[in-house]
Amino acid sequence: MNPSCLKTISRRVIVASGLGLLAALPALADTWPSRTVRIIVPFAPGGGADVSARVLAEQLAPQLGQAVIVENKPGAGSALGVNAAAQSKDGHTLLMGSNSMVVNPSFNPAIGYDVARDFDPIGMVSAQPLVLVVPANSPLKSVQDLISQHKGKTPPLTAGNSGIGTLAHLSAEIFEAETGVAFTPVPYRGESALMPDLIGGQVALGFLNLPSVATHIKSGKLRALAVSSPAPAPDMPGVPTFRSLNLPSLEVQGWATLVAPKGSIPEEGLARLESLLGKALASEAVKARFAALNVTPVIQSRQLTGQFLKAEGARYGAIIKARGIKPE
To answer: 246 and 137, same structural domain?
Structure first.
């Protein structure tokens, strides 16, 4: 066979091989995930982020065709679990992130991760308001009472929270800056540890997650003065929003988001997760489960979620800097 024929055949083989590889790419992308998917929750079992992750795991597993497990890694104000997720490059690890994920880097520059650098957003998951609550026997009946009776007064009121730098703590700092009512932050190891002292009147008030206090408000053990959601909370009739009280800066909410370690999951896999997450959150089953938790499903694109995380980090970073907040 002459050389020119050999060259022609070689070119045909190369072209055919290349076309074969191109045809195989979508098939390879469609194989993600190829094994069990892990969702790291950087908190102890039983909390809102944990339960939300487990609800989603149930919904995503049959759609992905693989088991989806939840792994709790609490510690260091969620930094332990977030760092573990950021460093996981197995291509099958996700993180259920929350406010603390974006707060911690400003609160502690040595935290070890950067949200924009280390994570690919997939979508928002849920939102839940905070409620300003006082013990049932408190003389404070409204936010107006709180301001009129304590603005510029000493000693400062005690404000319980679930740790320095948490949303509960930062909300009290915002309130103090806006109104002139001074607080002494009293940190506890979680809201469950705080609750007996709040109900018993050992601390004057707290800005706490609605799911944590809803039962105590309904039972009459705590009194709700205001809620941080944009609109009134359906389960809290008659409780005003901070915005309606001309305190729009107190419109803060706890939230959860699903992210993946940067570059660990192919683009097609991220797009698939974004779509499946949106469908799960729109389902009646998830809506009912979330409603029981007093949280609201939030469907948002990857792009908007990335912008939101950046904006939240900047917002709370500015508060931490302005108030001179330091780690314990």
So the answer is: yes
